[in-house]
Design a protein that fits this description.
- By secondary structure, the protein is α+β, with helices and mostly antiparallel strands.
- The strands form 3 sheets. It has a 4-stranded antiparallel beta sheet.
- Helix 1 crosses helix 7, helix 4 crosses helix 7 and helix 6 packs across helix 7.
- The radius of gyration is 20 Å and the shape is elongated.
- The chain binds a DNA duplex (16 and 16 nucleotides) through loops.
DNA sequence: AGAATTACCTGAGCGC
DNA sequence: TGCGCTCAGGTAATTC
């Protein structure tokens, strides 16, 4: 699924391609995604220009003069840029048709994605207002993580996947960051030491940053802004060997999410 | 307030 | 071949 690095790479590509373009019309083929597509969306966007493309966690934020278009790609969603009109296929839910004839098409088999229209700056929209700091911003560091974990006994993996704690850390990168920091995913958050929090915050920043940098060296294909070729250390390797000690990785479930870790390297 | 649970959705992979 | 089952998981909503 598109994780934060893929969303950031998508954002960069869209920023290059869309800024200044004028939206001619919006075609809504599937009015019910994860959230209902706002009925006023099409009319609100008509003849508006894209002023900027931002990101908050995994949400893409399009400043469209009259308001803000907020999109989440969910688990299986991706955006495709087409040079001109093309017949829609299965799961092509939305088209943004620009004045120059090009089309931004939203495709999402599982419909976990969402499209939101906001009259006020996207960051102030209720759906985004309550989410935590950006993991790649200065506001997210070990001291912050230490502070917010004091009163919580929830497993640390669930803590860092909690959007109100930190924005956009999904299952893949939560697994990877905990491995890198040497912390067991099921540790109660309140058991983390100062040093643990420093290592964990640094690890989260590193895995995301490296993934963005690695992915950006590849051409982002029009049709497949999705996975990029990072070799994960633990995620998806539940039957494999630890890259650090060679021992067998173990898997479990936390919050109904697959969790992989090395019982020797992580404590 | 914090924690736990469930719903949403469909393609892929599996056993039989 | 095809059926039925399980799994994948970000976010929102609900409940305790």
């Amino acid at each position: 699924m598109p994780e934060l690095p893929e969303v950031e790479l998508t954002r960069r590509r869209l920023e290059r391609e869309l800024i200044g373009k004028r939206i001619r019309r919006v075609i809504v083929r599937t009015p019910r995604l994860r959230l209902p597509v706002p009925p006023e969306l099409a009319a609100s966007l008509e003849w508006r220009r894209v002023r900027s493309v931002g990101r908050r966690g995994k949400f893409l934020l399009f400043d469209c003069e009259a308001g803000w278009l907020i999109m989440h790609l969910g688990m299986t969603g991706f955006l495709r840029l087409l040079p001109g009109p093309a017949l829609p296929g299965k799961h092509d839910h939305l088209d943004f048709v620009f004045a120059d004839g090009s089309v931004l098409r939203f495709h999402d088999p599982r419909k976990f994605g969402s499209v939101i229209w906001s009259d006020e700056p996207a960051e102030r929209h209720p759906r985004l207002a309550g989410i935590g700091p950006e993991p790649l911003s200065a506001a997210f560091d070990g001291a912050y993580l230490f502070r917010v974990s004091r009163t919580r006994r929830v497993a640390v993996k669930l803590l860092i996947m909690n959007m109100t704690i930190v924005a956009g850390v999904g299952n893949i990168y939560a697994n990877e960051a905990l491995f890198r920091a040497g912390i067991r995913p099921d540790r109660p958050a309140s058991s983390l030491t100062d040093a643990d929090c420093e290592r964990l915050a640094a690890a989260i920043r590193e895995v995301l940053r490296e993934s963005i940098d690695q992915g950006s060296t590849y051409r982002v294909e029009e049709s497949a802004v999705a996975y990029h070729p990072l070799n994960f250390a633990v995620y998806g390797r539940e039957n494999g060997a630890c890259t650090r000690c060679g021992g067998a990785l173990e898997s479990t479930r936390l919050g109904n999410r697959s969790t992989v870790y090395c019982p020797r390297c992580q404590s």
